[in-house]
Amino acid sequence: MTRILEGKTALVTGGRGGIGRAIVSRFLREGATVYAADLTPQGSLAAHDDDGSVFIKLDVTQEGDAIAAMDQVLADQGKLDILVNAAGIEIEKTIEDTTLEEWNKSFAVNCTGTFLTSKYALPLMRASAQSGNSASIINFGSYDGFIADPGLAAYCATKGAVHALTRAMACDHGPEGIRVNAICPGYIDTPMLQSFFNGDGSGGGGGDIESLQQAVRDVHPMRTYGTPDDIANLVNWLASDEARYASGQLWVLDGGLSAQVQQMKI
Q1: Is residue 31 exposed (0-12), middle (13-18) or buried (19+ Cβ within 10 Å)?
Q2: Distance, CA of 28 to CA of 23 (rounded, Å)
Q3: How far apart are CA 217 and CA 235, in angstroms?
Q4: How many CB atoms lie within 10 A of CB 12?
Q5: Is the Cβ–Cβ distance between 60 and 88 less than 8 Å?
Q6: Of the candidates 8, 1, 49, which has an alpha carbon nearest to the alpha carbon of residue 27?
Q7: Is 258 left (phi over 0), alpha (psi -120 to 50) or beta?
Q8: What PANTHER family does the record point to (predicted)?
C-alpha cells in the first residue's frame, strides 16, 4: 500500500489533544516523521502512549518555545513539510461575562499561537518547497468563524481571525511553494466538546448530558457529530501532494450543520 506522506516531516501543535492525536496517528500511518507539540506528553486526554511520534514541549503563546521547537526540527530533519496548528481553547461566555484576561488568553492561544508557529516554521518549509516537495500549513478555524453559537463570543472572534490570517498567509507564501488552508470543524467528539456539554455556557445550562448530546446529533442533517478521525482524514489529504492545487481555502467539515437555513438552539 502506498503511504502518501512517506519521507515527509510534520509538526502538529496540540498534538496530544483529541483532534491532534488523531492527526498524529494518521500521519504516522502514512509514513511521516511526526513531532507532537503540546504542553504535556499526556495532553487533554490524560494519556501517554508511545505512538512513534517525537514529543516537543510547546506553549504556543511563547515565542521562545516556538523558536526552540523549530530549531529542534531543523537540527533533526533539516526541513519541515507539514505544519498543523491544532492547539486551541474555548471559553463559554458572552463578551459581557468575559474578562479581559480571558479574552487575551483566547487570542493568545488560538491566534497568536498560529502566528508564532507559522512564522518560525516558514524558513524550514521554504527548504522543503525548494527541494521540490509540497509544503503545507493547515490552520484550525471553525464553523463558528462563519456563524455563531451563543455564549462563545471570544472563541468565535478568534476563529474569524484565523480564517482571515489563513487567506493572507496563502497569498503571501503561495509564490514560495507553501500552501495554506484552514479546516473549520463543527461539533467533534473531543474533550472540548464534553466540556461544552458539562459546562455552564451554551452547551450546559443545567440540562441532562445525554439529552444534550442527542439534541446536538439531531440538529445535524446527518444526525451525528464528527470524530477526530473525520478531521484527520481531511488534514491528511491537505498535507499530501494530492492537494497540490488547494490553498487559501476554508474547509468546513460539520456534517451539513451550517448548510441549514435555521439551526436549533442547543
Answers
A1: middle
A2: 9
A3: 23
A4: 31
A5: no
A6: 8
A7: alpha
A8: DIHYDROANTICAPSIN 7-DEHYDROGENASE
Residue 3 CA to residue 31 CA, distance in Å, equals 6
Q: How many CB atoms lie within 10 A of CB 262?
A: 5
φ, ψ dihedrals at 11, nearest 5°? -125, 130
Residue located via cell numbers 490553498: 247
Rounded Cα distance between 114 and 257, Å, is 26
Q: pTM here?
A: 0.90
> Hey, what's the cell of 2?
502506498
- What does the pLDDT read at residue 202? 47
C-alpha cell at 22: 488523531
What is the three-class DSSP state of 224?
coil
CA angle (49 as vertex; 182, 55 as ends), nearest 5:
55
Active site amino acids: 155
Domain at 9-188+227-256, CATH class: alpha beta
Under the banding of pLDDT at 50, 70 and 90, the label for residue 259 is confident
- What is residue 206's predicted lDDT score, i.e. its pLDDT? 53
Is pLDDT at 205 greater than 80 in this prediction? no
Residues 126-142 pLDDT 10s: 999 998 888 999 999 99
Strand-pair category, 54-57 with 178-185: unpaired
Residue 208 in this model has a pLDDT that exceeds 70: no
Stated as kind and residue range, the H or E segment containing 70 is helix 63-77
C-alpha cell at 21: 492525536
